[in-house]
Task: structure prediction
Amino acid sequence: MSDSPRFAVLGFGNMGRALVRGVLKAGLTPPENVTVTARTPARLSAAATEFGVQTTSNNRAAVDSADVVVLAIKPQNLEAVADEIRGAVRPDQLVVSILAGKATDAIGALLKDGADDPPLPVIRVMPNIPVMVDAGCSPYARGPHATDEHVKIVEALLGSVGETAEVPEHLMDAVTGLSGSGPAYVYMMIEALTDGGVKMGLPRDVSIKLAAQTIYGAALVVKETGLHPAILRDQVTTPGGTAIAAISDLEENGLRPMLISAVVTATQRSSELSGA
Ligand SMILES: NC(=O)c1ccc[n+]([C@@H]2O[C@H](COP(=O)([O-])OP(=O)(O)OC[C@H]3O[C@@H](n4cnc5c(N)ncnc54)[C@H](OP(=O)(O)O)[C@@H]3O)[C@@H](O)[C@H]2O)c1
Result:
């Protein structure tokens, strides 16, 4: 594959847009090497105006000229898009799917023209919504026909919008339960901390700023020091002080098992939805 691969991004919603922005910002390829597709002309002209990329509503034409085909449509649109591009996807291309709950072998089989066609390299990704601000978490799993070279391309693509990690495909439901759905849990925590501040008399705008920045800052310290969160928690817990009084409350009210259970429940739901 060339140093400036040609990307076809099928679907230009929240995720498609974030990935196109990341690819261009990271200089992985110039805008003329990116083709974006969508159904509505307004969306396509917005993509052309904002990023200077090629646009078309013809998925097959976009796929024909691409090295990397990114599926960024909704899972319920997959059948229709597959009908359009079936047989046009070649084994010398890489298919990157961000569709929740769609396994690499199912996608490969859906896009092949006939059972005797050569297998397609497919890599499956579970991004999360902070890719919109380049702070995403996008674990991926490679299908059996994806090579290390394909993985390098995907790591560059996902690295342009945040962090990434390779996992075996059977753990894709678990990453959905943790980082895929995780922003929802954290939004709830920010909301609840904000309410706590408001209850204690802080103006709401100040309270939400403090709550969001506290979570952001604490997460950054975990990432940058590499220290276990329990060590960091001990560092800010003065004997007889405020933090230990609150920690005791949180333990009594089950914060820890509640969060573990949230990840387990979301993982199980992901597995049900993907029919595993
Ligand atoms: N959002 C998340 O937090 C999240 C997290 C992980 C994974 N994902 C996955 O990311 C994918 C995209 O999600 P999203 O939130 O970006 O969805 P979205 O905002 O609804 O965008 C979907 C895009 O697909 C386009 N589309 C639909 N049918 C099409 C077709 N036949 N040909 C070409 N384009 C078509 C739509 O175009 P029109 O508007 O013109 O119809 C739209 O641009 C989903 O599969 C989802 O499972 C999302």
User: Anything to note?
Assistant: Strands lie at 7-10, 34-37, 54-56, 68-71, 94-97, 122-125, 136-137, 140-142, 162-163. The CA atoms of residues 237 and 245 lie 9 Å apart. The chain has two domains: 7-172, 182-273.
